[in-house]
Amino acid sequence: MADEIVLLNFWPSCFGARVRIALAEKGINYQYREQNLLQEKSPQLLQLNPINKKVPVFIHNGRPICESLFIVEYIEEIWKDKAPLLPCDPYQRAQARFWADYIEKKCYGFIRRILYSGKEEERKEAKKEFIEMLKVMEGELGDKAYFGGDNFGFVDVSFVPFHSWFYALETFGNFSIGAECPKLLDWAKRCMQRESVAQSLPDPLKMYHYALQMKKRFGVE
């Protein structure tokens, strides 16, 4: 019997995009169920993720897994022979997890503050910290094609979904990521040439309009 695989997601979610990229890299077919988080959350989402009540939720043969990095690692473990995302070496695996965790703890928080904070000083501080974080990541990338070297992997999957926010951030934050971190932008463009990434990420202009909608919702000019 074939595996039953379902993904609950909301289209702007960078976290859900991680799961979509991982599944695409491994060639795994699945059922996609869109959740509109701007409206009332679905009974299925509340039942399967009663603690955090958010997407993504990955359902494998009826069993739900929550939190995007945990989901990607689960996918890696279940389908480890298909396009490995984590290196075999234990030290390198630990390093990949470290950088994915760094991204997890930093990136989206800065994005929310840049776009939606009602205080100009807080937006400026968030922009400064965000650029500093990008430079740290650019330093870790160095001259490699991907964060793991020649192979697209776990850190790339963790980070590249945020590329969809870059246009909105540059427009509303009045700065240039390419000017600040040219190697990082080249990496993002390289990732976008992969079918798994290009077909999993929302269009940056669509994300800009979503951010505009959310700014109005939060009363931020």
Characterise the protein shown here.
- By secondary structure, the chain is of the alpha+beta class.
- The chain has 2 domains: 5-78, Glutaredoxin, CATH 3.40.30; 90-218, Up-down Bundle (Glutathione S-transferase Yfyf (Class Pi), Chain A, domain 2), CATH 1.20.1050.10.
- It is 57% helix and 8% strand.
- The protein has a 4-stranded mixed β-sheet, with helices on one face.
- Helix 7 packs across helix 11 (204-218).
- The model has no long low-confidence stretch (mean pLDDT 97).
Secondary structure: elements and pairs:
Elements: E1 5-9, H1 14-25, E2 31-34, H2 43-48, E3 57-60, E4 63-66, H3 68-78, H4 90-116, H5 120-141, H6 154-159, H7 166-173, H8 177-180, H9 182-192, H10 195-198, H11 204-218
Parallel strand pairs: 1-2
Antiparallel strand pairs: 1-3, 3-4
Helix pairs in contact: 1-3, 4-5, 7-11
